[in-house]
Amino acid sequence: MDDPTAYIPWAWSVGSTDPNAVTCPPPSAILGTFAIVNLIVGFLSITVGHRRVTKCLTCKLFGHKNSNSWKWVWIVVVGLQLLANACIALVIKRTPGYEQGFSIWQLTLFFTARPRVSWIFGIPFSWMPNCCSGARDRRARKDAAYQMYQGHNTSSQSQISPGQKFEKDWAWRTFAFSQFIAEIVLQLITAYTMGTTVAFAAPRGYYILGNLPGPTGRRAHMMYSAALYWLCGQSALLGLGLIVTVAVLASSWHVAYKMHFTMSVMGVAMVPLSWMATWLFWVGYVQLAGGL
Question: Which residues contact 262 (CB under 8 A, 6 or more apart)?
Answer without folding.
Answer: 244
